[in-house]
Amino acid sequence: MPTMRAWRLHPAGSGLEPRLETVPRPEAGASQLLLRVRAAGLNRGELMVGHGPQAAGARPAGTEAAGEVVAVGPGVEGFAVGDRVMARCPGGFAEYARVEAYECIGVPPALDWAQAGSIPLTNLVVHDMLVAQGRLEAGETLLVAGVTSGVGVNALLAAKAMGAKVIGTSGSAEKLERLKREGGLDVGLHVRDAASIAAIVGAVREATGGRGANLAIDGVGGSVFPALVEALAYEGRLAMVGYVDGQLSTTLDLERLHLQRLTVFGVSNKLRTPAQRAEAVRAFRADWLPLYADGRLRSWVDRVFPFEQLAEAKACMEAGGHLGKIVLGGAADA
Questions:
Q1: CB-based contact 291:6 (threshold 8 Å)
Q2: Domain assignment of residue 319, given as a range
């Protein structure tokens, strides 16, 4: 049986330890493709305990990847051996990955492997927040708590491509200035403590002529949630996507929710059905793939680590010094 190298995450004390192992190489089954992985994006929720639901025991590492199709399973249409493909997939940190055909998106020539490998999970989440549920329109204002994260940076880039104004918060003033220079961030709010969190509301009102933000993204957690709700405009929407602060409960002003006709929604792929996931991919292809193809939209990749250095890439993410996405490169050809 053919084998391959693949990273697996093992519980280790209070954390997760990546280990490079030799495992059987998967085969493409019905309605599946087999990819030779060239790049795969890191995502905080799977690599760090306390940032999303965690399965018990060891498991394959990686949730998004890009690579070349090396095998096409029965019943697959629209893909052929040699195609460049990106997809959400379990076990993306491996030499080969088996993916469901409905998850696959063709990689435009304008994207290199690192950019393609950073898109499938992160930017499908961003599309869900901004388009599918968030209904962001040109001329509206997006408020992103945690704008310097992978999701936050790519939400900024997508919102600007859609013609929206973007206000972002971060604990790093340096990163905010860089996003203003290089990413089109309109207003950066340096948030480090309870006082600066409380100041979000006034700063957003000032930046929007008193109206508030039309859509807010909470990528931080319960510590900023009440301020984001208060900063929303009439009929504003709020997407709950992350809780790096570890605060999983907070308060909600029900009177404001009622009178302002606000919408609060969660963003997660974990419990979605295959049909729902397939529909999300179709919508992403229609709405945003043309923007990637002609350069109007890009993915912000901070660093690319060699395939053998997942532990170092994970440590970089834990340290929080990056801006945007961290990517694991594909293994060298044998």
A1: no
A2: 3-122+272-329
On whether both 145 and 260 belong to a single domain, the answer is yes
CATH classification at residue 146? 3.90.180.10
Q: Do 314 and 211 share a domain, yes or no?
A: no
- Pairing assessment for the beta strands 232-240 and 213-218 based on DSSP bridges: parallel
Pairing mode, strands 15-24 and 3-12: antiparallel
What is the identity of the amino acid at 2? P
pLDDT tens per residue, range 63-72: 999 999 999 9
SS3 66: strand
The reply to whether 139 and 250 lie within a common domain is yes
pLDDT-wise least confident of 3-7, 13-17, 74-78, 147-151: 13-17
User: What is the pLDDT confidence band of residue 1, given thresholds at 50, 70 and 90?
Assistant: confident
- Residue 127, in any domain of the structure: no
User: Could you give the CA distance from residue 5 to residue 24 in angstroms, rounded to a whole number?
Assistant: 9
Residue at token pair 């076990």: 91
Residues 278 and 194 in one domain: no
How large a percentage of the chain has pLDDT more than 70? 96
Residue 334 domain flag? no
Question: Mean per-residue pLDDT for 74-99?
Answer: 96
Q: DSSP states of 19-65 as a string?
A: EEEEEEPP---TTEEEEEEEEEE--HHHHSTTSS---SS-EE--SEE
CA–chain centroid gap for 156, Å, is 12
Report residue 15's pLDDT band, with 50, 70 and 90 as the boundaries.
confident
Q: Summarize the confidence of residues 205-216 as an average pLDDT.
A: 97
Number of domains observed in the structure of the chain = 2
104 touches 86 (CB < 8 A): yes
Using the structure block, give the residue that is written with the tokens 């009622």. Answer: 258
User: 């504003």: which residue's tokens?
Assistant: 236
Sequence-distant (≥ 6) Cβ neighbours of residue 314 within 8 angstroms = 18, 42, 47, 48
* Torsion on CA atoms 70, 72, 77, 80, rounded to nearest 10: 30
Tell me the residue type at 209. G
